[in-house]
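Thread: Newbie trying to understand structure tokens

Hi all, I'm a second-year student working on a class project, and my supervisor (Dr. K.) asked me to get a predicted structure for one chain before our next meeting. I've only ever worked with sequences, so writing a 3D structure as a token string is new to me. If someone could post the tokens and maybe explain what I'm looking at, I'd be very grateful. Here's the chain:
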Amino acid sequence: MIQSTKPQSLAHGLNDSPAGLAAWIVEKLRASSDCGGAIESRFTKDELLTHIMIYWTTESIGSSFMPYYDFANAGALTWIKEGVKKWTGSS
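---
Reply by user tm_fold:
Sure, no problem. This is what the structure looks like when written as tokens:
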């Protein structure tokens, strides 16, 4: 929910805290991986650290939140226009 309401506030906090960023990413991967709570049954420590370091070194966690913000904050008219574009094959 916070990703769709205050993505930049969240991004600043995560960019300032490597431990916070690691906890955020690991929690999201754990929740989406159907691992029964055993994250290392799906990801090696190297894979987890790679995910974390990509966001940490590029400071791109904030931009990764933008689709959530856009989806939550686009008005009905925007969604209708996009639907008509897809339906008619327009770009």
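A couple of things are worth pointing out once you decode it. The CA atoms of residues 29 and 88 lie 37 Å apart. The first helix runs from residue 2 to 5. Feel free to ask follow-ups in this thread.
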